[in-house]
Amino acid sequence: MKTKHGLARSFAFALEGIWGEFKKGGNFRIQVFMGVAAIILGFIFKISEQEWFSLILVIASVLILELINTAVEAIVDMISPEIQEKAKIAKDVSAGAVLVSSIAAVFVGAILFLPKIFQ
């Protein structure tokens, strides 16, 4: 399945994957909306460059890991449609990575915004 694509086509495939996950709804859409809300709060509270760096990093990590989790789940389901212990481990660990990243994002958001909200 090796084919050559130009840079523009590669970007189109990537955007198709992101848009497809967004349209499907679920966790990715919620995470995108939460990220957008955090960015809006960043503008409202005029956060510093360092705070922007932290905010963008945690938002990106959550979204990236959610996309990877979806890819892992799709591959595992394709390779192993029947329930197997190792397939379950792969899916659970992948979901766990998203959870850890999401918890970190909540803490970063709380550290950045709670003092500004209650100021």
TrEMBL record:
<keyword id="KW-0460">Magnesium</keyword>
<dbReference type="GO" id="GO:0005524">
    <property type="term" value="F:ATP binding"/>
</dbReference>
<keyword id="KW-0444">Lipid biosynthesis</keyword>
<feature type="binding site">
    <location>
        <position position="66"/>
    </location>
    <ligand>
        <name>substrate</name>
    </ligand>
</feature>
<feature type="transmembrane region" description="Helical">
    <location>
        <begin position="28"/>
        <end position="47"/>
    </location>
</feature>
<keyword id="KW-0067">ATP-binding</keyword>
<dbReference type="GO" id="GO:0046872">
    <property type="term" value="F:metal ion binding"/>
</dbReference>
<protein>
    <recommendedName>
        <fullName>Diacylglycerol kinase</fullName>
    </recommendedName>
</protein>
<feature type="transmembrane region" description="Helical">
    <location>
        <begin position="53"/>
        <end position="72"/>
    </location>
</feature>
<dbReference type="InterPro" id="IPR000829">
    <property type="entry name" value="DAGK"/>
</dbReference>
<keyword id="KW-0472">Membrane</keyword>
<keyword id="KW-0547">Nucleotide-binding</keyword>
<dbReference type="GO" id="GO:0005886">
    <property type="term" value="C:plasma membrane"/>
</dbReference>
<keyword id="KW-0418">Kinase</keyword>
<feature type="active site" description="Proton acceptor">
    <location>
        <position position="66"/>
    </location>
</feature>
<dbReference type="GO" id="GO:0008654">
    <property type="term" value="P:phospholipid biosynthetic process"/>
</dbReference>
<feature type="binding site">
    <location>
        <begin position="91"/>
        <end position="92"/>
    </location>
    <ligand>
        <name>ATP</name>
    </ligand>
</feature>
<keyword id="KW-0812">Transmembrane</keyword>
<keyword id="KW-1133">Transmembrane helix</keyword>
<feature type="binding site">
    <location>
        <position position="73"/>
    </location>
    <ligand>
        <name>ATP</name>
    </ligand>
</feature>
<keyword id="KW-1208">Phospholipid metabolism</keyword>
<keyword id="KW-0479">Metal-binding</keyword>
<keyword id="KW-0594">Phospholipid biosynthesis</keyword>
<dbReference type="Pfam" id="PF01219">
    <property type="entry name" value="DAGK_prokar"/>
</dbReference>
<keyword id="KW-1003">Cell membrane</keyword>
<keyword id="KW-0443">Lipid metabolism</keyword>
<feature type="binding site">
    <location>
        <position position="73"/>
    </location>
    <ligand>
        <name>a divalent metal cation</name>
    </ligand>
</feature>
<comment type="similarity">
    <text>Belongs to the bacterial diacylglycerol kinase family.</text>
</comment>
<dbReference type="InterPro" id="IPR036945">
    <property type="entry name" value="DAGK_sf"/>
</dbReference>
<keyword id="KW-0808">Transferase</keyword>
<feature type="transmembrane region" description="Helical">
    <location>
        <begin position="93"/>
        <end position="114"/>
    </location>
</feature>
<dbReference type="InterPro" id="IPR033717">
    <property type="entry name" value="UDPK"/>
</dbReference>
<dbReference type="GO" id="GO:0016301">
    <property type="term" value="F:kinase activity"/>
</dbReference>
